[in-house]
Amino acid sequence: MFYREAGDFKTSYREDSQTFPIKFDRLRYYVVLAIAFGIVPLFINDYWANAVAVPFLIYAIAAIGLNILVGYAGQVSLGTGGFMAVGAYAVYKLMTAFPEVSIFIHVILAGGITAAVGVLFGLPSLRIKGFYLAVATLAAQFFLVWLFNKVPWFYNYSASGQINAPERTMFGVFVTGAQTSAMAKYMFCLVMLTIVALIARNLTRGTVGRKWMAIRDMDIAAEIIGVNPLTTKLSAFAVSSFFIGIAGALFFAVYLGAAEVGEAFGIQKSFLILFMVIIGGLGSIFGSFAGAAFLVLLPVFLKNVLVGTLGWPTDLAAHIELMIVGGLIVTFLIAEPHGLAQLWRVAKEKLRLWPFPH
Amino acid sequence: MPDIVLYAAEVTLNGLMAGVLYALVALGFVLIFKASGIFNYAQGVLALFAALTLVGIQKGQVPFAHLINAMTGKHYTNFPWEVPALVAILLTVGVMVVLAIIIEKVVLKHLVNQAPIILFMATIGMAYFLEGFGDVMWGSDIKTLDVGLPQGINETIDSVTYNMFGYGFFIDNLDIVAAIVAVLLVAALTVFSQYSKQGRALRAVADDHQAALSVGISLRFIWILVWSIAGFVALVAGIMWGSKSGVQFSLSLIALKALPVLMLGGFTSIPGAIVGGLIIGVGEKLFELLIGAPFLGGATENWFAYVLALVFLVFRPQGLFGEKIIERV
């Protein structure tokens, strides 16, 4: 009843090819945007921004990036942490080398640099497939982390080997550094996420996205019908790494402020983001959001319950949290292998018929 | 002989020994991948869990002591006994078999016919769970594992090489034991899979699931069997690594060391796991000695194996001994 295509007539090509062709979707999208831009910033405080909102926004960007590669183009990658590190170190070098340029441009440029690195590490995907490729991308993960650890030029020869985000402003408001307000962090990441999500949504609906999906479904068959595997696979790696690089840049510059590469961008990060994509739903932009939200909120929730309410020691709580997260992932995969996005699809089917059963 | 050659020879020998240990972990992967097509990321955590359980049983720890203490406010730590090493090992094997049954019943049974990536993710979920579970059950402090294996420098090799070259090779006794155990293990596995009824069923399943089902082989039994064997291999690997560097979280990271070994050797080949392990063990040690430490600032062992495997795969996508990948539309 609420969600239906019937009666939603399009009178121009423009209307027919808009981002959200169905009225309910469009409404929902505007409502979400209005809440995210208009209402949340009024109430956000440091705790909510640092524990929930900012990590969610950044992980959502990374998850969208990885989803393009794994969900749409079918190339499993475990190198996400390494690519995020490229974004972080690129933005750090740019910020310190060109202090007068806007941070916004730096973040975009960092994404571009990561895209180039991503294409480089994507080259083997033309020969290697499936799990062999997944393990091969681990080479990127370990090599990049090692590189940023060992070559002092990347961290400007600082004694601790850490990188620290200098203070930068946009429109006179601090967006990086210690003086940044919760609202500025939130808004900066939100703007980035909105741009990324719009680009991703439209790319995946268009020619590029269809080529990716053709390669995912069967690459030899796709090649026979005229999809060029070289450009398609590498464009997937480039776009995916571009988004992941932006996420890495934001993660370091806005969220952490200071980072040590092995700790912030280790292999655990790669797995975390892959989980977000899988739990959210492969090949779904909405799924990336849902997965990121789920895996950001779950540890916060568990920590509050186990340590806050039950008063258990933190190390024990951390282990039980691992058990619960692991258990939930397995349960999830058994109950709904297509992720949260599939639940949403089922809900939409129900909405289409409601209140009539057939 | 010049010093660097002798030194390189020593490093090569040590690399071979390390490679044997990688191969031990890789072996568990290959067994499961062959029999069920599951890429089992949890193999490293299985080794950690097995080693934790072994130490716990041996030292007579109270399982879940930390949790019980947190809930009741009491202070349990140990039972008033210690279990002999051999009995403890047998008990741990029992625990691993029970674990295999639980994994099959709770997880794998429900995931039949899912895409490989979903199964892979499920094993990562299991890895998280087992890691937390092992820590809750036995505590997360670093433990020493001693089942009576010889440790320390092998005096015979040291003195023989000293007399021959004027430079004594440092080879750990434990590594020698590990190499012998690995050879025995591979021999036993080969005999098992070639000559026993279950072993044949196992190979039949590895060859073709449906055909195996149609001649009356129970897939579920085979899966339990193969996870039990993988658990046993994990226990052996856990004992070796645990005796070498203590039982702690980092033990589960040996899974990451085993992955390039698998790529190099091929996911489906047991000899491949061994040869791949040896190549990587020697390769990364020599690279670190000759190029990594002098020119690149060291710690190249973290990524060398992966890059080697990556370059290798570009020329031979199925690994050294993997089955040739044939693709059809």
Mind explaining what this structure looks like?
Chain B: This is ABC transporter permease. Chain B: The chain crosses the membrane at residues 12-33, 38-57, 83-103, 110-130, 176-196, 217-241, 261-282, 289-315. Chain B: InterPro entries: ABC_transp_permease, BCAA_transport_permease. The complex is a heterodimer of chains A (358) and B (329). With 358 residues, chain A is mainly alpha-helical. Chain A has a domain at 23-264. Chain A is 73% helix and 3% strand. Chain A is built from 15 helices and 4 strands. The radius of gyration of chain A is 21 Å and the shape is globular. Chain A starts with 12 loop residues before the first helix and ends in a 5-residue tail after the last helix. The mean pLDDT of chain A is 85. The N and C termini of chain B lie far apart (58 Å). Helices cover 72% and strands 0% of the residues of chain B. In chain B, helix 1 (3-36) crosses helix 11 (254-265), helix 4 packs across helix 10 and helix 11 packs parallel to helix 13. The mean pLDDT of chain B is 80. Chain B is globular and about 60 Å long. Chain B contains 13 helices and no strands. At the A-B interface, helix 6, helix 9, helix 12 and helix 14 of A face helix 3, helix 5, helix 11 and helix 13 of B.
